[in-house]
Amino acid sequence: MVATVMVSVAPSSTAAAPKAGDLDRFYHQRLDWKACTLGPDDQVGKELDAAGARCADVTVPLDYSKPDGRTIKVAISRLKASGKAPRLGMMLLNGGGPGPALDMPPYMRQLMGPAGPRYDLVGMDPRSLGRSAGVDCGWNVGTWIKGAGPNRRSFRRAARFAKDLADRCARTNRSVLPHISTRNIARDMDVIRGALGERMMSYNGASYGTYLGAVYATMFPGRLDRVVLDSSVAPDIWGPRLIAPAVDANEEALAAWAGWAAEHDDKYGLGDSKAKVLKLVHHIIAVSAKRPLEIGQYRLDATLVPVFLLDNISTDEEPARAALAESVRLMREAAAGRPVQPSPDLAAELEFLTAATREDGAGGSGQAAIICGDVAAPRDPAVYWRDVQKHRAEAPIFGAVGYDIGPCAYWPTRPVEPPTKINIDLPALMVAATGDTRTTYESNKTLHGLLHGSKMITLDAYVHAPYQRGYPNNCILDRVNDYLVTGRLPADDLTCAPEM
Known about the structure:
Elements: H1 24-27, H2 43-51, E1 54-61, E2 71-79, E3 90-94, H3 104-111, E4 120-124, H4 152-173, H5 182-195, E5 201-207, H6 208-219, E6 224-232, H7 247-263, H8 265-268, H9 274-290, E7 293-295, E8 298-300, H10 305-311, H11 318-335, H12 344-354, H13 358-374, H14 381-390, H15 399-402, E9 424-425, E10 429-433, H16 441-450, E11 451-452, E12 455-459, H17 466-469, H18 474-486, E13 494-496
Parallel strand pairs: 3-4, 3-5, 5-6, 6-10, 9-11, 10-12, 12-13
Antiparallel strand pairs: 1-2, 2-4, 7-8
Helix pairs in contact: 5-6, 7-9, 9-11
Pfam family, one: Abhydrolase_4
Domain AB hydrolase-1: 91-260
Protein name: Alpha/beta hydrolase
């Protein structure tokens, strides 16, 4: 059944809910569709235009409790349904992060197989990101996620780094930050649905996008048709300390990679046993704690080497494992004091980690704005130091990353609304991997239990977001795409075996 369209936002215990009529002009606005390319260096826009997509800006209130006040523009792209098969409606896409998603429709159309051409695929840059009133705090770093390092002195440096980032946001964006949150992004989504003339929409979200989708479904019940949630975030772990629950999963995934590297010792020479490879990794980190590793023009210290490893164990696909083995080989040379030059791919990642472009810094600013705007972080640095020390033994590589202090500890504003309580009827199709290093399998199972009527497909693999990633597993791809065409969920939860 199609729910009656309403134009009021869900009531909040801390922010007054506007009356339905207050938002009519946003829900019924006329969109100006245009080419997506903004300039000669706009690669995203060029790819969207080449695929036949069009772009528009949707006007939304900055503060939904004051709909007659200041407004912002939320950028969307749309790749309209094509072909002779009947159209199945509109599908909004989110790839996680939080990060921009304007670029997603052409990629997702290919991934969705026969279902792809039957939807109007809509990408959205969430508020504070990309083209949607992007928050730029002037951060000159690619990532705001760092490790605490080996000792209290390195932890204090991490704390100063986090405070400096937060202070920059306070100086440049204080008036906007209170209105950056997942709940407001969900409200923006519903305005987009209304402005596109859709009574209901489908949704396909991965990682953070699963939390966003669950928040939207809670705030706006009955407005979602077919829903795919890929690698889900449990509501109780979403927030500034999101990485902490996953540190054990990352240690396990790194050990699995070390076993793979040992099997390929003839090629990479990292050690002929899992234990020897892991010993080498620990040695590299120990050296980087004394002096930064020099890899070409880049410098990696003990606060960044674990972050690099974290970034590179999100899948067990052979090319990714091989790339990490080659990078560790180069790090071993650098740890020995020998001159090394990075490969082009490694150089691009080291550039991101150590010396951001303006776009990288802005993206990190907007991402932090959402996370810090959703859930308050502990303010006392001693809490973080204590937790780092507590977890060094059981998570010797990633504990100092997952439990380290970040800019949310010094954020200039506090969340305006409490986190959304999720416990609803939502017959979504969920995809999960047992070895997920970002949203653990336990996290997936938790959200599954809160979305009554949902079904979950489990893949026994080390991978994050297997469906949206295009992980080579036909069992996953075929079942998700069949659901998107037919709307029929499996009768029971399913398990897909590895196919590599």
